[in-house]
Amino acid sequence: MKFFIDTANLKEIQEAQDLGVLDGVTTNPSLMAKEGISGKNNILKHYKAICAIVDGDVSAEVIATDYEGMIREGEELAELDEKIVVKIPMIKDGVKALRYFSEKGIKTNCTLIFSAGQALLAAKAGASYVSPFIGRLDDISYDGIQLIEQIRTIFDNYGFDTEILAASVRHPIHILKCAEIGADVMTGPLSAITALLKHPLTDLGLEKFLADYAKTNK
Ligand code: G3P
């Protein structure tokens, strides 16, 4: 399973990259706003800065919600760097835009997926990735993990190339469940990734090893 980090924070992206487990980055307009990035030029500059750090796909989301606008913005984003994946919302014009970009060989990530039907439609339109938001489903008492399972079954039944990018991942158990099911990618915060390395027995064990070494190596 590929590990993407879901942030526009350059420091966190660098930290994940330095850890040696990072396969890509996902951003969205809220994450860009959180970093105080505004204005078209600054936004484009920031995407380029992210691409300079990471060795892999970088999702950049269009703001337009009409077909022509999405095409215009998506083409401009794709020209920034070959790592850019154009992120398109799951709406009617978005589905048409997915088909357009797929035919042009530009990678896409269909975002705001909350049902298997939406994922199937995006895959048929040629999306490179679909992003089911598992945390936001859990938030309203739907089972986000079950949705990943359902999409996995459908994509495997028909051999779709579209990758399942489990998004809105909030904690390490989400990551493990996605890995068990066979999500192709998960995107989450740095805290969820680094939480994977923690275990109290590891800390206790290391403490004892070092104490025993110190006793005999004075
Ligand atoms: O990038 C989209 C998704 O990962 C958002 O996550 O935590 O805002 O639901 P969250």
Cα end-to-end separation: 45 Å
Topology, number of strands: 8
Low-confidence stretches: none
Order of helices and strands: EHEHHEHEHEHEHHEHEHH
> What is the CATH superfamily classification?
Aldolase class I
For the record, the CATH architecture stands as Alpha-Beta Barrel
Number of domains: 1
Please name the CATH topology. Answer: TIM Barrel
Short characterization:
The chain is of the alpha/beta class.
What does it look like?
- The protein is an alpha/beta fold and 218 residues long.
- The protein has one domain (2-216): Aldolase class I (TIM Barrel).
- The protein has helices at 10-19, 29-34, 40-53, 67-80, 92-104, 116-124, 134-139, 144-158, 172-181, 190-195, 200-216; strands at 2-6, 24-26, 57-61, 84-89, 108-113, 129-132, 163-166, 185-188.
- α4 packs across α5, α6 runs parallel beside α8 (144-158) and α8 (144-158) packs parallel to α9.
- The protein is globular.
- The model has no long low-confidence stretch (mean pLDDT 98).
- Bound molecules: SN-glycerol-3-phosphate.
- Residues 6, 26, 28, 133, 135-136, 167-168, 187 line the site of SN-glycerol-3-phosphate (G3P).
Task: For this entry, give a set of tags.
TIM Barrel, 8 strands, 8-stranded parallel barrel, alpha/beta, 218 residues, 55% helix
Any chance you could write out the topology, listing elements then pairs?
Layout: E1 2-6, H1 10-19, E2 24-26, H2 29-34, H3 40-53, E3 57-61, H4 67-80, E4 84-89, H5 92-104, E5 108-113, H6 116-124, E6 129-132, H7 134-139, H8 144-158, E7 163-166, H9 172-181, E8 185-188, H10 190-195, H11 200-216
Parallel strand pairs: 1-2, 1-8, 2-3, 3-4, 4-5, 5-6, 6-7, 7-8
Helix pairs in contact: 4-5, 6-8, 8-9
